[in-house]
Amino acid sequence: QEQLVESGGGLVQAGGSLRLSCAxxxxxxxxVAMGWFRQAPGKEREFVAAINWSGGSTYYADSAKGxxxxxxxxxxxTVYLQMNSLKPExxxxxxxxxxxxGYDDYENLSMGYDYWGQGTQVTVSS
Length: 126
Prior knowledge:
Blueprint: E1 3-7, E2 10-13, E3 18-25, E4 34-39, E5 46-51, E6 58-60, E7 68-73, E8 78-83, E9 92-98, E10 115-116, E11 120-125
Parallel strand pairs: 2-11
Antiparallel strand pairs: 1-3, 3-8, 4-5, 4-9, 5-6, 7-8, 9-10, 9-11
């Protein structure tokens, strides 16, 4: 059974950094694109960043550009999200997602992803 498990969330002060990890199991996700989304209380889930199958192409939401970096290690079946210069408005549950078989390029719409993790909470205090 395919499974994505996020880790690395927590409480951090504004201006601080966190590194989220997403470990995939059940099958290899090395040939598909993966992404990170987030959802704050009372808001819809929004796109944060995505990466193609090889890691050679990345795509960011405007809110993440210049501060967040998505990367992947296919040998470990793991995707990362390095978050720097965090702001209180970055507080949300962060979800890892994987596209279905054959979809090797990134996507910024949640409907383009077939597999989701359970989420990890990120809280940024002011």
